[in-house]
Write a structure and sequence with these properties.
Length: 877
């Protein structure tokens, strides 16, 4: 068999992914085996692969491939999320570019455009995941707007409403003026921004007096319903019972008293706009104030804004400040650091707004989810420090605003039949709704045509919180075979930024609908950042194109590069050099395989003792590392598991084991050693496969002819066995002995082809088991133990043992003594300098502890070196 000189990643990746797909290795059906299940965090249907997806899905693929090798019935369910706000925004923008206004379309017409968009772009990200090597069960691919998925959402809504947990209320909500929809509290990101504090004059009615109020939003004066003072503030007792005149609009408003007012902020007076501030709304309800909504849905001013009608709020802010100043009603401005709420989706500044919305009561629903994670530990977060974040969110939870003013999404199943606020019914279909409406109104003549469905859609998270259940049909049919077999799932891999949005809500839904947890472990990845610690984004231009990275370094190289630095919960400082390191690792493995397959094999020659002990050592080392890998996987230390395999393969297998068993130049290798080398290589490939699936499958299939059932992807994970740890300890010493020989050969320019003698004083009584390996790797003519120092020899130490290489006739002894004498003089001078520092009390007292420790290490190293040089000089004389 001809093995290519270079590993061609691109060709290999296409070949083996097609092979895996053709043979249906990724698909799972319930059977007698124990299931291992992962559901993908569904990316936005219109999204494309970014570095966060690369990391997240690589980790999932590592877990699912390892589970497959360990004999589990592995099922990884892929899918996408309809992403109401993001997708609708993209469709609206597309229509606008074509000269079409959404408001000119019917809901059905708009949804047709949205489905066209989804069908055109919706599969992009899933196809990209295939290039990364993701072994998802593509036959089970789900979309949150699939008919069965939508039916699950509607059934959930109806059920929760009938339980009294969903209600409709007129509330102050977070309004996104760009998306033109309400958001939940959790979708609002507060940012510190530098703004201004405007000091405005309000005239006291019937007098020539004024009072001054400080506000960050002068444009909201058109919505003022009152001025509020603190009853304990003696500065304003003269204003009790009086009225003030709002600048510009001239409206007369009452001056009220309430202890809510902070006497120390601004001027101690507060303008009250109940329609545009949550706290002002509370004051308005308490004092029965008028509610004046001054904004349109896009945050432009409406008719209450007078001559500013139709203008954007921020444009008005600048203009009204100028007008107030010209009128003498703006006394001053100050810079002011303010926390501004922004939309998590559109980044638009949130506008508080009063409107009728649907809410889900959370107080009781959340209790099992708190207990599961924080008390019983049934669901474990990795790393555990996120328990504190989880606790904070869930212990301070508010009712969930689940309605959105969008068309793309599951339409709320509420049907109105009258003008009153309670003139509606909730049902899974309009046919059921009309029956309920007839019963509620005692009007059997009520028709379907008399009903109108709520125009709003449900929050996207209200569908995705059912994801682990709905993908297996668990909401519509809790007794389904798939649901009973695959649920609860095992592991969830996601980012901490959606710990509340999605993870906590899935746990809540799991206990509400299935009576149990949706998963056991949650692996929280860090954010992928650049070398300057900046979050990667297209706007900063610091985010590499994932598919370009795969093309440049190979999927295996990119996977290794990402995972080597991806410890749970910690941000990754991404550098392309990491992917280059992964590519280099691929080449190292490929070259090791080529070396083995290039050996001629003979069954006629006896196995050398050095090869026998090499195999025994590597088998022990493999088992030691396997145990560490298993422990790291159990603790979700995926990066550490990979690093353990990396060192095992690069250092122990390639750098030591293969050198120990390699036959002499143009000589064959014995068949026993060769068979063991192949066995060791195959075991390495099994450990590597979850991380580097393409390269490992290619080598596995090149080693021998394999049937479909014998492919690496469905082979078996190596068994853990007991091992002799003393072999590992003894070989660590052996490596130092060999390194000492190699150092002397290099320093003294003694070619490896020239056999040399080695004599040793075994002061430590170390095992001689690996002496044949020392002889082979050191190319020793002889290796013997002696009782006394050897004259005419170069020497070195390993622990307390002394090793001597006689060099008479090999090197110029006089020249070597001269060189060593010079090196001794330099080292003694260096030691004197270091000891001078350490004897300086001022230096020792003032220097950091780390600096002192470093100097003491220099001292110890110099003393040891002097002793070695003196021994070498003595041995040569």
């Amino acid at each position: 068999m001809t093995i290519p000189a270079q590993f061609d990643a691109e060709t290999i990746e296409n070949k083996w992914y097609d092979y895996w797909m053709k043979n249906n290795y990724f698909h799972s059906e319930p059977d007698h085996r124990t299931p291992y299940t992962i559901v993908i965090p569904p990316p936005n249907v219109t999204g494309v692969l970014h570095m966060g997806h690369m990391l997240n899905n690589t980790i999932q693929d590592v877990l699912i491939r390892r589970a497959r090798l360990k004999g589990f019935n592995a099922c990884w369910v892929p899918g996408t999320d309809h992403a109401s706000i993001a997708t609708e925004a993209k469709v609206v923008a597309k229509l606008k570019s074509e000269g079409i206004n959404k408001n000119d379309l019917t809901r059905e017409e708009f949804l047709k455009h949205a489905w066209d968009w989804t069908e055109k772009y919706g599969g992009t990200i899933l196809e990209q995941l295939k290039q990364l090597g993701c072994s998802c069960d593509w036959e089970r691919t789900k979309f949150t707007m699939d008919p069965d998925m939508s039916a699950s959402v509607i059934k959930s809504f109806v059920d929760l409403y009938n339980k009294g947990l969903i209600y409709r209320g007129y509330r102050m909500v977070n309004w996104d003026p760009e998306a033109k929809t309400t958001l939940s509290d959790e979708e609002v990101i507060f940012e510190e921004r530098q703004g201004k504090l405007y000091f405005l004059r309000y005239k006291i009615e019937g007098t020539e007096d004024y009072l001054t109020i400080a506000t960050t939003r002068p444009e909201t004066i058109f919505g003022d319903s009152a001025i509020c003072i603190n009853p304990n503030d003696e500065r304003f007792t003269h204003l009790r019972g009086k009225k003030a005149i709002v600048p510009i609009c001239g409206r007369v408003i009452p001056i009220i008293e309430d202890e809510y007012v902070d006497i120390t902020f601004g001027t101690g007076c507060l303008k009250v706009t109940p329609a545009h501030d949550m706290n002002d709304k509370t004051l308005g309800e308490k004092h029965n104030l008028e509610i004046i909504d001054i904004f349109n849905e896009d945050a432009t001013l409406n008719s209450f804004g007078m001559h500013y009608q139709g203008q954007d709020r921020f444009v008005v802010r600048e203009a009204i400040a100028k007008e107030l100043e010209e009128k003498g009603d703006l006394t001053k401005t100050e810079t002011h650091l303010n926390k501004v709420g922004t939309s998590e989706r559109t980044k638009s500044v949130i506008e508080p707004r009063l409107s009728d919305q649907w809410f889900l009561k959370m107080e009781d629903l959340v209790k099992p989810a708190i207990k599961s994670v924080l008390v019983d530990g049934d669901v474990k977060l990795h790393p555990a420090r996120f328990n504190n974040t989880y606790a904070h969110w869930l212990n301070n939870i508010r009712d969930w605003n689940i309605s959105r003013q969008l068309w793309w999404g599951q339409q709320i199943p509420a049907y109105f039949y009258g003008d009153g606020k309670e003139d509606f019914v909730v049902a899974a279909s309009i046919e059921e709704a009309v029956i309920l409406a007839q019963a509620k109104t005692s009007n059997s003549s009520l028709l379907i045509s008399d009903l109108r469905q709520d125009v709003d859609a449900l929050d996207t998270w209200f569908s995705s919180w059912l994801w682990p259940m709905s993908v297996f049909g668990g909401i519509m049919d809790p007794e389904s075979a798939d649901f009973k077999y695959y649920y609860p799932t095992n592991d969830l891999v996601t980012g901490p930024d959606i710990l509340f949005f999605w993870v906590a809500r899935m746990i809540i839904a799991g206990y509400e609908y299935a009576g149990e947890k949706p998963f056991t472990n949650v692996y929280l990845t860090g954010l992928v950042r650049d070398k300057q610690r900046r979050k990667m984004s297209k706007s900063l231009g610091n985010s590499p194109e994932p598919l370009e990275l795969i093309k440049k370094f190979g999927a295996d190289g990119v996977r290794v590069g990402l995972l080597l630095s991806a410890s749970a919960g910690n941000d990754i400082m991404f550098d392309e050099e990491l992917c280059n390191q992964g590519k280099g690792f691929s080449n190292k493995i490929w070259n090791a395989f080529k070396l083995i397959k290039g050996w001629e094999v003979s069954s006629e020659i006896e196995q050398p003792e050095s090869s026998k002990v090499a195999i025994e050592w590597y088998e022990a080392k493999f088992q030691q590392v396997l145990a560490e890998i298993e422990d790291n996987f159990d603790k979700y230390r995926i990066s550490e598991a990979l690093m353990g395999i990396y060192k095992l393969v690069w250092d122990d297998f390639c750098s030591w084991f293969l050198e120990m068993i390699k036959p002499a130049y143009q000589q064959p290798i014995d068949s026993i050693t060769f068979a063991k080398a192949i066995e060791m290589l195959e075991n390495n490939l099994k450990l590597l496969h979850p991380f580097m699936p393409f390269l490992t499958e290619e080598i596995w299939q090149l080693i021998a002819e394999r049937s479909v059932e014998e492919a690496l992807i469905v082979s078996t994970w190596p068994d853990s066995k007991s091992f002799d740890a003393s072999l590992i300890v003894d070989f660590d010493v052996t490596m130092e002995i060999i390194s000492g020989i190699r150092t002397i050969r290099k320093d003294k320019n003694i070619p490896f082809k020239d056999a040399i003698e080695l004599k040793a004083i075994n002061n430590d009584s170390i095992s001689t088991y690996f002496d044949t390996v020392v002889s082979k790797l050191g190319n020793l003519a002889s290796f013997e133990y002696v009782a006394e120092k050897v004259d005419g020899a170069l020497s070195y130490r390993v622990n307390s043992n002394e090793y001597f290489i006689p060099v008479a006739g090999t090197i110029d002894v006089a020249a070597e003594i001269e060189k060593l004498t010079a090196e001794l003089a330099y080292t003694k001078g260096f030691l004197k300098s270091v000891q001078g520092k350490l004897s300086n009390e001022k230096f020792v007292a003032g220097a950091p502890e780390k600096v002192i420790a470093n100097e003491r290490q220099k001292e110890a190293d110099a003393i040891a070196k002097i002793e070695t040089i003196e021994q070498s000089i003595a041995g040569l004389k």
